[in-house]
Amino acid sequence: AEDAYTQALQLYKRVEATLGEANTRKALGDLYVRTDRLAPAEDAYIQALQLYKRVEDSLGEANTLQAMGDLARGKRRHSEALGLYRRAEAIYRTIDERLGLSNVLANGAKCHATLGDTADAIKAAQEALRIGQEIGNGYAVDVANNVLEALHPENEG
Fold first, then answer.
1. Which of 2, 29, 68, 104 qualifies as a FRET site for 36, CA 20 to 30 Å off?
2. pTM score > 0.90 for this model?
């Protein structure tokens, strides 16, 4: 897959297809995360983000910010992840992209909980749960429920 992405990047650069280059750099970042190459992943995401901004692709920008947040959270940089999720959240709200919104709210709730911001964790988890249920996003529902249960263990059983 990496070779194909590299070839695609060369082609997109040659024909000046900025969106294609941005999509490929984001995909490379995702591949690097899956293969535990986190520094190249971060670089690929930063480059993709710049390209998405250049072509004014809000969804691509928000998706990349979310991926960067996931990467930061995986590296236990929760405050940084939260900032990236908030940036993605603002874009998702602007373009009314509820799948991405429910995911960043759920992941943001995990960060808030880890940082000890219980009220913000509950607020984000409740909104992620509501939206996730409305649109059938099982990931957001599961993450939000896990956060809420962890913060209110007396409600279990």
1. 104
2. yes
